[in-house]
Amino acid sequence: MKINVKQIAKLADLKLTEKEIESLQDQLLSILNYIENLQKLDTDSVEETSQITGLENVMRNDIPQPSFSQEEALSNTKSQEDGLFKVKAVFEQ
Amino acid sequence: MKLNELSIKQAKEGLRTKKFSSEELTRACLDEIKKRDKNLNAFITICENEALADAKKADKLLVEKRTGTLLGIPIALKDLYLTKGVKTTAASRVLSDYIPQYDATVVSKLKNAGAVIIGKTNCDAWAHGSSGENSDFGPTKNPLNEEYVPGGSSSGSAVSVAANMCLASTGTDTGGSIRLPASFCNVVGLKPTYGRVSRYGIIAMASSLDSIGHFTKTVEDSATFLEITAGKDLNDATTPEVKVDNYFEDINKGVKGLKIGIPKEYFIQGLDKKIKEKIEKIIKFYEKEGAEIVEISLPHTEYAIACYYIIQPSEVSSNLARYDGIRFGNDRSFFGDEAKRRIMLGTFTLSAGYYDAYYKKAMKVRTLIKEDFDKAFMKVDAILTPVSPTLPWKIGEKVNDPLKMYLSDIFTVTANLAGIPGLSIPIGFENGLPVGAQILGPSFSEKMLFRIGNCFEGSNQNGL
Questions:
Q1: Which residues contact A2 (CB under 8 A, 6 or more apart)?
Q2: DSSP string computed for B373-433
Q3: Concatenated DSSP letters for B157-191?
Q4: Which of B41, B113, B202, B375 is most buried as measured by Cβ atoms within 10 A of its Cβ?
Q5: Contact (Cβ atoms closer than 8 angstroms) between residue B192 and residue B431
């Protein structure tokens, strides 16, 4: 098996060096080889467990609560303008 | 005995009877931090001024005879717990300058109980690790022997209690991150039932596995702490409407009549012989105290690490996707090696074409592991196992072999997959290094775990 490390890095929005790509190729393969042993188990008739609590549709009353002021919300950003987060343009003009 | 060496129970008594003040107690802890933390590196942030101010406030309230379960008691918080106005980093350079605008639910509860927050503790970055060596701010060292790892990921929290820099500390346990460092540092560590304690405001690792627990010097202190942190939180939909028990009701009842299961799959090749002997001794102890020892089987144990290393990185890759450096923190180039490794692994196992073979398969195996425990708890009240297959290892020994590092969690990940609680208690030393035992019970059985743990602690002050 081969892993397309560059493609995965693109999906994960990580910029990796050539050296990192190389070592991740080996490390991920060795972990995946270990994980392979799950295939030995027959699970055709087993239900999936995505979470353990069994809780469903947890609701609470829709009562407004205090929330951040604009100033607080922006207090950790390095990029703001006119009281807004400033981000790079997503679409070209 | 120095003030910082006291348990919560002892310190509360001393504060109540005016033997010393919270300020003196807090200063004793701060002095110990100043003395040892240059070497141990247990703290990322020390809140000296805030802590002393809070201690003085607590002293005033104590004079007025006001009470609070932790009034005036110095504690430390893992740096994954958001603290309003105090830097919170998750031990990652991505969050090197992040100052939260709010407190985690548990932090609010601890503050309301009167606790004095002395600082934020080091850990493996994003809680990714079993040794404490993955912190972006340098590894934490084991206070019992500084050449050895303290266990992770809640490394600094375990060390801060073991080295008497505070009386208790908080941790997070996704695959063993409280129980393993507790056993490596000779303190008591509790991983509560999934959902028993709110996750709101605690930086997420793997959301279906994360459990919010703590480190203390005694089992009784662990019960005191859980009485504060446990309970439903409207901000965390996974906290159910289950009544919080009175954890002290049965704590001195002993183990007579309880059935304790010993799972044969946990006594495998690879388990250190010396640890095995210690566990056999504690089994004998409980038998002598009147417990019935029952051999049981948890047949899917051998699949647990593989199952965990699909589910956990998958959820990690999803949770860490939010760190874009726009609203807070630095951009994604600041992630360290282990975080990148897990993001990559999780992105792969969730990607189109591989989802069924990996993630879906793992969710099915998780069901089998949970059913193993359900069946076992029809026969026994609790299960006793080792915490770690090995003694603490030397710093640097496993850093170049991720898979070997992952396998150190072999006896702890099962509880996270099944959502059940686990208590790690110190049971003695081997070659000068501590050994821990793990007591597991059905969901919401913390009261019984404290009872079983306290029975041993009460009769074995010097370990086995």
A1: none
A2: HHHHHHH-SEEEEES-SS---BTTSSTT-HHHHHGGGTTTHHHHHHT--EEEEEEEEETTE
A3: HHHHHHTTSSSEEEEEESSSTTHHHHHHHTSEEEE
A4: B202
A5: no
In terms of CATH architecture, what is A1-39?
Orthogonal Bundle (1.10)
Asked if B370 is an interface residue toward chain A (Cβ–Cβ < 8 A), one would say: yes
Average pLDDT taken over every residue of chain B:
97
Structure tokens at B313: 């990185």
Can the peptide bond before residue A67 be classed as cis, meaning omega within 30 degrees of 0? no
Q: d(Cα B366, Cα A57) in Å, to the nearest integer?
A: 22
Token reading at B254: 């002993």
- Reading the block at residue B442, the tokens are 């059905």
The helix-helix angle for B219-229 and B105-112 (nearest 10°) equals 110
Distance CA(A35)–CA(A31), nearest Å, equals 6
The active-site residue, picked from B130, B135, B157, B177, is B177
Amino acid at site B401 = D
Tell me if chain A has a CB within 8 Å of the CB of B347.
yes
The pLDDT of residue B401: 85
Angle subtended at Cα B92 by Cα A7 and Cα A68, rounded to the nearest 5 degrees: 100
Amino acid at B266: Y
User: Does residue B268 fall inside a structural domain?
Assistant: yes
What pLDDT shows up at residue B440?
Answer: 98
B464 domain-assigned: no
Q: How many CB atoms lie within 10 A of CB B35?
A: 12
d(CA B231, CA B196): 6
Q: Is B360 an active-site residue?
A: no
**Are B237 and A58 within 8 A, CB to CB?**
yes
In a domain, B405, yes or no: yes
Residue to substitute from A29, A31, A42, A86, interface B, most B β-carbons within 10 A: A31
Q: Which residues of chain B have pLDDT under 70?
A: none
Domain that holds residue B389: 3-459
**DSSP 8-state class, residue B276:** H
What is the spatial distance between Cα B236 and Cα B196, in angstroms, rounded to a whole number?
A: 10
Give pTM, 2 decimals. 0.97
List the CATH number of the domain containing B343: 3.90.1300.10
Residue B344: inside a domain: yes
Total number of domains in chain B:
1
CB distance B182 to B387 below 8 Å: yes
Which residues numbered 17-76 in A keep a CB inside 8 Å of some CB on B? 20, 24, 27-28, 30-32, 34-39, 41, 43, 46-53, 55, 58, 60, 68, 72-73, 75-76
